[in-house]
Amino acid sequence: MGVLIAVEGVDGAGKHTLVTGLVNRWATQGYRVATLTFPRYSESVTADIAAEALHGQHGDLRSSVHAMALLFALDRRDADAELRKLLSANDAVILDRYVASNAAYSAARLGQDADGEVVDWVSTLEFERFGLPVPDHHLLLDIPTDVAIGRARSRAENDASRARDHYERDHDLQERTGNVYRDLAERGWMSPWSSLGTEPDPDLADRLIAI
Question: Is 3-209 CATH 3.40.50.300?
Answer without folding.
Answer: yes
